[in-house]
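User: I'll paste a sequence; please echo it back and then give the predicted structure.

Assistant: Echoing your sequence first, then the prediction.
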Amino acid sequence: MIDTHTHSHHSPDGAAAMAEMIAAARDLGLSGIAFTDHAEWYPGDPAFGFLDLDAYFSELAQVRQAYDGRMHVLAGIELGNPHDFPTETQAILAHPFDLVIGSVHWLNGLPGWELPIFRNGLAATYQLYYEELIKMVNETDFDILGHLDLVRRDSWDLLGETLSSDAFREPIEVVLRHLIETGRGLEINTSGLRKGLPGPLPGLDVLRWYRDLGGEVLVTGSDGHSPEHIAFGFSTARDIALAAGFHRTARFENRTVVDWIEL
């Protein structure tokens, strides 16, 4: 398998050089890793102005040379709220990425990981989050939707509560249908498992909806920020993917699915 969602020290919350992350992935028997460091444009975000793409691609070239033929080392990026920053997004996508993740991290100008976002209650914030996802998938160019129900992880972290996806099935299916219609995909993000949730993001229910609607493009990412996070919970993610009806995950290069990895 390939860990398609990781953050090196080129993200403000990353803890390690690329070589350390790759070594951990290789030790675990993975066939590859994608460095999807943060690109954020809200001034209050810790990642605002942090990413130095020249330094990122320079280090990436070094580790690719060191692991040539032994690991798939993918150039990636995680775009935060790219639909709110179309000019900046267009400029950054001119770079030679293999995989682009689109994520919603901010709602109505507030960070999703801080308590004020839930001041109107969980249900209102969940609804707002899924509506924001609809905007993003309709308006922005990316390859994989990151942690579809991140709002569940945030409410768990901040309040120790989550709401069922069933109550928001309608907007979630709007998102899933548009991904399928445009040939884009979904990730199983295992950070929820690392943070104490009973399942990944999204869980089995949403993955089944995606599969039943005709979804095929699926990847697995740890959202790891240090070597010990790499491939965390991947065995659980594999079991859930199989239970949802998937038998393979996608391998990307140059923003295109070039191969399939049997589960």
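The chain has one domain: 2-262. The radius of gyration is 17 Å.
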